[in-house]
Amino acid sequence: MTSINPLLPQDVAAVAAMRQATSAHKGHSLGPEARPMFDAMLGAVPPVAGGRVEDATIGGIPGVRLRPDGARPDARLLYIHGGGYVLGSAGAFTNFAGQIAARVGVEMFIPDYRLAPEHPFPAAIDDVLAAYRGLVAEGGGQIAVAGDSAGGGLTLALLSILTTAKGKGLPPPVGAAVMSPWTDLALTGASMETRAEADPIFMRDMLEAFAALYLQGRDAADPEASPLYGRLEGLPPIRIDVGDDEILLDDSTRYAAWARTAGVDVTLAIWERMPHVFQSSLGRFLTAEHAVNAMSEFLYRQLSGAALPNADLSGA
Questions:
Q1: Residue 114 belongs to what domain range?
Q2: For residues 25 and 41, is the Cβ–Cβ distance under 8 A?
Q3: Is the separation of the CB atoms in 148 and 288 below 8 Å?
């Protein structure tokens, strides 16, 4: 299923203000020196009241474990943060990912996977696989996976790895939900050009810089780096949410099309006038609230086999 969700009237002014605020910084390449700024930006997402947040190590990978109030004991979420493989941390994403964990009502682990350029490919995906393996070893029921941007790419790469010999012996997650996933580090999507003016954040050279820091000469079409080129047969249900105004749009639309051809149950939601990972604008965009609710309902359904009680799926 594919849905096209128009811009909500309530968000027109907020989107215009966002575009004005970001225009001066569009396309600026960011390296490790930008990590404090990036973490502070994500930390501004409203936190969830209650629950427990604690440092944890799972599968040998450090990170943050979130336990929402009333979390069910028979299911867990693995959340893979974004940041172009160069930025981001488990701690910085605690508020945003915690909003999803609280809505789904399950415990979540956010791994602090190693970042480039200090730790180039395949360090990040190796850490994600190790964290997933650790969650499986802990027991405790069903597992679903979610992620944004580069973390969305890592999520989808993990799904493909689990169908290969490298993932032998590991059960697949029951489902995955990704936001604006970066699935093609070769940057071959047509939206690199068709959305170049509309995207308020990214320019092609910014993504090229991230990819170069991560790959450091490795093949951009390696399926563990770019899941668009990975094995897609036999994957669990996937939900993809993407903004219509981002140059990574085709990373979502092509992945969805190819996965469907491979027999995968894919839900694709395109949100008009929305930028990259707009869901992190909770509290500013009503659309972000609708999208996070829809994503959470999908994850709940995969983990439970039933609809999320009182779910608000407006426009999803």
A1: 2-303
A2: no
A3: no
The string of DSSP letters for 105-152 reads: TEEEEEE----TTTS-TTHHHHHHHHHHHHHHHH--SEEEEEEETHHH
Q: Which helix (H) or strand (E) holds 258?
A: helix 249-261
Q: How many domains does the chain have?
A: 1
Q: Residue 23 carries which side chain, given as an amino acid letter?
A: S
Quick check: bond before 117 cis, omega within 30? Answer: yes
- Total count of residues recorded for the chain: 316
pLDDT, residue 308, reads 65
Distance CA 288, CA 103 (A): 14
For residue 312, tell me if it sits in a domain.
no
Q: Which distant-in-sequence residues (6+ apart) come within 8 Å of 252 by Cβ?
A: 180, 181, 183, 240, 242, 268, 270
pLDDT in tens, 24-54: 777 676 899 999 999 999 988 999 988 999 9
- Tell me the catalytic residues: 149
